[in-house]
Specification:
Strand content: 25-35%
Helix content: 10-25%
Radius of gyration: 25 Å
Shape: elongated
Number of strands: 21
Low-confidence stretches: 129-136, 140-145
Number of helices: 2
Distance between the termini: 25 Å
């Protein structure tokens, strides 16, 4: 037997979860790299149940960054950052800058990962060429750009002459992610690093252990090489659709009001039934 009171409670719980999800999307409208949350309703024995769907992975619009070190992925791909404990995380937020040691890091201090390049522009193997094919490793043979391990991007400045790595007047980040050192008034350009980009079969199903920081799961698949381009000086804005979420938020509010009225009505009927029994 279906209990209308329990049905109303379950429906209200699902509507509240939907409301919270939409409110989160609206609150993060201007959060760089935010991925819109998606959800759907399913039939339940008593009422409905809310199911989380893969996050929206559509490209967000570009917005001005804090400087040339701000990076944005145009297309499919995620930046790779390494925590102090060695764990790799993946993010669309390219709010990077160089720390006092000359390493490119995010606001949390996690080092941005890249590949060391030779003067010919080819990747240089900086570690074990037979790296184990473990999850959470963008360089394993089962789902990454070869066996070449990533390294931090370091452009330390020589205090004696004020030049990067002691010989470059400036640096630039090209659209393919290559970081080049520029010397002799632009006449000499040398490839130094390539910003690591990875992607996933189902990126919307990755776990999120930290704000806008993701990690692979069985559902998302192992990391593979990303195909996006890198833009310098800009950040990716939230990909939340304001109009759609605003309309859904009004619907969620209506559902909450209706279920609250149903619960109140059922409570009144129950009290009246108990009064009559007495």
């Amino acid at each position: 037997m279906i209990d209308p009171f329990i049905t109303a409670l379950n429906t209200q719980k699902a509507a509240l979860g939907w409301f919270d999800s939409l409110a989160s999307n609206m609150t993060n409208m201007y959060t760089p790299g935010f991925r819109e949350k998606k959800s759907n309703f399913g039939d339940f024995v008593n009422g409905v149940q809310l199911f989380e769907l893969p996050r929206n992975e559509y490209q967000g619009k570009s917005m001005p960054g804090r400087g040339p070190n701000s990076l944005m992925v145009e297309g499919k791909g995620y930046f790779v950052v390494r925590k102090p404990d060695g764990k790799l995380l993946y993010t669309r937020v390219g709010d990077f800058d160089f720390n006092a040691e000359g390493s490119l890091v995010n606001p949390q201090g996690y080092s941005v990962q890249g590949y060391l390049l030779g003067e010919d522009g080819q990747m240089v193997n900086t570690g074990d060429s037979n790296a184990s094919p473990a999850a959470n490793n963008p360089n394993h043979s089962a789902g990454g750009p070869g066996h070449i391990p990533t390294t931090e991007i370091n452009l330390w400045m020589d205090p004696s002459n004020g030049k990067f790595l002691g010989k470059y007047d400036e640096y630039k980040v090209k659209s393919d992610g290559t970081v080049v050192g520029v010397a002799d008034q632009g006449k000499v350009t040398t490839p130094l690093y390539k910003v690591a980009l990875v992607n996933f079969i189902s990126p919307g199903l990755m776990g999120m252990p930290e704000d806008q920081m993701f990690e692979p799961t069985k559902l998302s698949g192992e990391p593979v090489e990303g195909s996006g381009e890198v833009r310098s000086g800009v950040l990716e804005s939230s990909n939340t659709d304001f109009r759609t979420n605003a309309n859904y938020l009004a619907q969620a509010k209506l559902q909450l009001d209706v279920t609250s009225k149903l619960i109140s009505t059922n409570k009144t009927l129950l009290e009246e039934a108990l009064r009559l029994i007495q």
